[in-house]
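User: Reviewer 2 asked us to show a designed sequence for the structure in our supplementary figure. I'm pasting the structure tokens here. Could you produce the per-position amino acids so we can include them in the response letter?
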């Protein structure tokens, strides 16, 4: 009986991964979003100082935009897609990555905390809270902010030209959908 439960559990996990990869493949075939919702709803685009490709140490350029806000401010997904990764690294600290249309990966870094219940494989939309502004990773000792980056198959692109204030519809290509899954894949 235990063996059957173990095999069934493994089969379900494999099935979940296959479904996730099929969804990602379908997203990759779609046209990338031309406009993205501002990930911090109380911040207007005109308030962002362009930090794209600013020097960061020896031989490294900044691959994103720093969007400053009080610690604990909710960070919303800028696009519809699926949570691709939740984890921690030296530069970004606590991070969430969302994969969206065109296979673009949207990277949210320096989070103080993750949204409760958020899991890899979850469907997200522009109203989904991913986490909260913080100073983790190499942002320790700086004012709280969100590092927002976009990665394509050919490398990082500047998010600033794509960002739109939250009161400027439409924000994404696809209609938002409620997540019905909360299992890790």
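Assistant: Here is a per-position design you can include in the supplement:
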């Amino acid at each position: 009986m235990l063996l059957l439960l173990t095999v069934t559990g493994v089969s379900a996990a494999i099935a979940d991964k296959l479904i996730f990869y099929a969804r990602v493949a379908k997203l990759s075939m779609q046209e990338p979003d031309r406009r993205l919702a501002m990930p911090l709803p109380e911040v207007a685009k005109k308030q962002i100082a362009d930090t794209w490709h600013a020097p960061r140490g020896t031989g490294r350029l900044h691959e994103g935009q720093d969007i400053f806000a009080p610690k604990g401010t909710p960070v919303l997904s800028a696009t519809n897609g699926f949570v691709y990764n939740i984890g921690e690294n030296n530069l970004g600290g606590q991070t969430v990555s969302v994969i969206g249309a065109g296979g673009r990966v949207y990277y949210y870094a320096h989070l103080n905390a993750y949204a409760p219940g958020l899991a890899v494989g979850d469907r997200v939309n522009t109203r989904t809270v991913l986490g909260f502004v913080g100073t983790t990773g190499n942002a320790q000792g700086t004012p709280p902010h969100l590092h927002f980056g976009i990665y394509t198959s050919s490398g990082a692109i500047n998010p600033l030209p794509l960002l739109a204030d939250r009161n400027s519809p439409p924000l994404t290509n696809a209609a938002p959908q409620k997540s019905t899954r909360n299992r890790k894949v």
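For the response letter, you might also mention the following. The CA atoms of residues 77 and 173 lie 14 Å apart. Residues 1-5, 169-185 have pLDDT under 50 and may be disordered.
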